[in-house]
Amino acid sequence: xxxxxxxxxxxxxxxxxxxxxxxxxxxxxxxxxxxxxxxxxxxxxxxxxxxxxxxxxxxxxxxxxxxxxxxxxxxxxxxxxxxxxxxxxxxxxxxxxxxxxxxxxxxxxxxxxxxxxxxxxxxxxxxxxxxxxxxxxxxxxxxxxxxxxxxxxxxxxxxxxxxxxxxxxxxxxxxxxxxxxxxxxxxxxxxxxxxxxxxxxxxxxxxxxxxxxxxxxxxxxxxxxxxxxxxxxxxxxxxxxxxxxxxxxxxxxxxxxxxxxxxxxxxxxxxxxxxxxxxxxxxxxxxxxxxxxxxxxxxxxxxxxxxxxxxxxxxxxxxxxxxxxxxxxxxxxxxxxxxxxxxxxxxxxxxxxxxxxxxxxxxxxxxxxxxxxxxxxxxxxxxxxxxx
Length: 388
Ligand SMILES: Cc1cc2nc3c(=O)[nH]c(=O)nc-3n(C[C@H](O)[C@H](O)[C@H](O)COP(=O)(O)OP(=O)(O)OC[C@H]3O[C@@H](n4cnc5c(N)ncnc54)[C@H](O)[C@@H]3O)c2cc1C
Description:
- By secondary structure, the protein is an alpha+beta fold.
- The chain contains 11 helices and 10 strands.
- The protein has helices at 2-5, 10-37, 43-51, 70-84, 88-104, 109-120, 228-262, 276-304, 311-336, 348-355, 364-387; strands at 126-129, 142-146, 149-159, 167-173, 180-186, 192-196, 208-218, 222-224, 266-267, 270-271.
């Protein structure tokens, strides 16, 4: 159905040919159980994925990766999400990939050897520990300079993949509180406590909190000595580029599931699937999916064309991706009746997983406020120019 209705791209089909069997045979079978038990996707599965060339796809060739473009990566995540029946798997793939690329961008051979190449081989992974309960611009985690390195103290409440990562990119303020450093903290460092973070959905992510108490980090594990906020922005940018791509893959399968569940149903002697109101709601699901695809394609193509990606396109992309995905999942819940509520039918997982998109990297209120403010500022700027 997807091939004909949605006209899947060549890159999506290629990803299916390369990774489809792995996703169907190795990722899909454990997905529902992992969700029920809150069990993280095992690193062994990632190791296998690396063996198929799925890990390291975006990492530059000089570090052992395939250096693929944004569009190919987005289409790959879309396919993997559909075939694997697991939202956590593509999201974790994308997060870990971005963290590895951020370390690569330091252009330091020692860091590439120690962290990036093992990522590509699927041997060990890096987590991204940026956000805190406090404002981005007022991080409470500190990295104080001592003999031979730094002492890091603080708390990071949510790290995707944290339960399975071997090291973490930790963002911490300097002594004076005027700048942010980025350091690599090893999982086995004395003073670091990694704890699971039970969640509403996306339970295979292995989300963890990090508590750092006077953790020593040697000088050579400083990735960025200053302006860590700009460093974090790059992660945020990359995440916003791909977030909706895997959500689309999940929505493809939700749409199919809804049609399949409704097809045999009869109510008041009428076939449910033939009711115009039901067809209209299914149409709204298709509409939502197509809106996400259109916005995501624009972002990915612009990124590949090295166009300056404005905050506007990112904010709209993130907002549309998250809110439309949740809207589509809501329609599904309404349409399938009680089946949406019985856990064994598997409908609930979509909505719970997709809710995870909402807060990530800016919730709707923050994005709408930002967009409104920008529009007002631009109009004021124009007026000033006109008056000159
Ligand atoms: C599944 C998942 C995975 C994550 N993985 C990671 C990870 O790997 N690494 C990491 O560092 N972090 C991670 N996070 C944390 C994530 O980055 C934060 O949740 C996100 O940045 C939003 O911050 P917040 O949760 O404090 O909510 P906020 O967006 O700050 O929202 C809190 C409240 O403030 C309101 N608000 C925010 N801004 C404004 C505004 N401008 N005007 C008015 N109201 C506003 C919101 O509407 C909301 O009511 C993850 C989160 C999730 C859900």
